[in-house]
Amino acid sequence: MLFILPKKKIPLGLSRKLSLLIEHVGENEEIRNCYDAVIIGGGIVGTAIARALKNSLPNCKAILIEKEGLLGKHQSSHNSGVIHAGIYYKPESLKAKLCVRGVDLITKYCDENKIPYRNYGKLIIATDPTEIHSLKRLYERGTENGVKELKLVESIEEIRRIEPKCKGFLAIWSPKTGNVDWSVVTESFGEDFRKAGGYVLLNHEVKRIKSSGYSVYPILIKCNENLFLKSKYAILCGGLHSGKLSELIQEDADGSHISNSKIMISMRVEYQLLKNESISTNVYAVPDLSLPFLGVHLSPQLDGSVLLGPSAVPAYQIEGYSDSDINITYLSKTLSSPGFQNLTKKYFSQGVEQLKRACCSGYQIKEVQKLVNISEENVVPGPTAVQAQYINEDGSFTDDFVFEFFQGEGIRTRIINCRFLPSPAATSSLAIAEYVCENVIERLK
Ligand SMILES: Cc1cc2nc3c(=O)[nH]c(=O)nc-3n(C[C@H](O)[C@H](O)[C@H](O)COP(=O)(O)OP(=O)(O)OC[C@H]3O[C@@H](n4cnc5c(N)ncnc54)[C@H](O)[C@@H]3O)c2cc1C
Prior knowledge:
Residues 36-320 form the FAD dependent oxidoreductase domain. The chain is α/β, with parallel strands linked by helices. The protein is 31% helix and 24% strand.
């Protein structure tokens, strides 16, 4: 009989192998794996929540289930690596509050755990007079959100004192914006959870969430390889798969679902890399404030390279990292949804713009060259990521974090779904964990 063991009890190295081993029980056998809380999804959000739960309630028996062989394999390791200061987000939104709180928590965490990060700062630069109004609105937002040390830089000389290669005539300077490798942070949160006695189960995909019929552990979670777990509570942190996870919840024998007119779509995000040229700070264009995107940017990475771009076009499957990743069911569901159809009409010109950037690297480089003097020869293809967008039925974007706390009936009253946590969720991860745990700790005590 094999159980997953918490990390503190076994030597390093062996732990990961052992964490893959768990007692297998058939559906009809007595179910012996019972937990106070099951966290599904081992990205930065799931690991941060698991860690916070175990820190607050050391006796809570908690398990984190991840379908991949390592933590943070998707969005948490495929991103811009920026510690956002909290400038962009609408005042009073969850993004604004959790990001501003998250920056302080994450920098303190990195200091305490010796995780490398750099305060490279950020310039958001207006290069055209039509951008001044939006830039000033952004500055007001940032100030209202409580972003520290935010400043307007009102001449090219002053901008160039910060980064000599920059162009433009008006900019926001945010010295508190930083850069970090979010996959290292995710791994560290996972380690904390293990050390505190939490269980981590890798390579197991949750396939079904339903009622167990037991009053103490009413949730039954079925994973691949015929593994069944019972739990009092479940916290879903599936990232790109959060919609799919929600659909896996089967209330009763009739399998009734909560209907949702919104649709989650995956966007393929492509970066380029600037080689042999350095840049001392993050440089961003003024974004279109009607869209939840930050616009073209350059972000220095800790390894010395500089990310450039990105472009974003619809992916052909949930984890559609390349043109050959195609899933017909996902595609037909997406293409036939009113949300997607309205989105393409509503944002046709912006879509064409993204397509031009994705198809023609030179076009994207020219966009970046409006901000910074860089040489085209030094730009090479970079990494690809996948980002979720949560689209309303009328085709508009959901522009804030979305959590579903204990919504619906039956076992849903014991489930939290971290439904939509786009950027700046990595920066906000520790604040998100506080926010989610507040809602579950009282119930678990
Ligand atoms: C291109 C891009 C750039 C970004 N840049 C930044 C940035 O600079 N700064 C910032 O703060 N944020 C940034 N973000 C946002 C941030 O990276 C994400 O919001 C964050 O990583 C989301 O974390 P997550 O844990 O929710 O999702 P993920 O990291 O995607 O993790 C979800 C996990 O759930 C697992 N899973 C799914 N379904 C199941 C299942 N059925 N069973 C078991 N496991 C399952 C998946 O395998 C995955 O590991 C960026 C995002 C993208 C895509």
